[in-house]
Amino acid sequence: MTHSGQMSPEEKYILLMEAAYTATDKDTYYKLMQKADQVFKDTQVTADNIEAEAA
Question: Which residues contact residue 29 at a Cβ distance below 8 angstroms, ignoring those fewer than 6 apart?
Fold first, then answer.
């Protein structure tokens, strides 16, 4: 991938999840999971907006 270093929300989500699973302490684990969850929610909102506009 060569496009200006921007990660897609999906890629960001996967990276956060992987980081969470490899986290050594619960605190880091939960922080990463929350971040991943937020990315996921943001993605859902964006997808919904695009679908609404296309309809």
Answer: 20, 21, 23
CB 28 within 8 A of CB 36: no
8 A C-beta contact, residue 32 and residue 23: yes
Nearest alpha-carbon partner for 23 in 8, 11, 42, 36 = 36
Both structure tokens of 51? 């679908």
- Say what the pTM is: 0.70
pLDDT, tens digit, 9 for 90 and up, residues 8-18: 999 999 999 99
The alpha-helical segments, DSSP class H, found in the chain are 9-22, 26-54
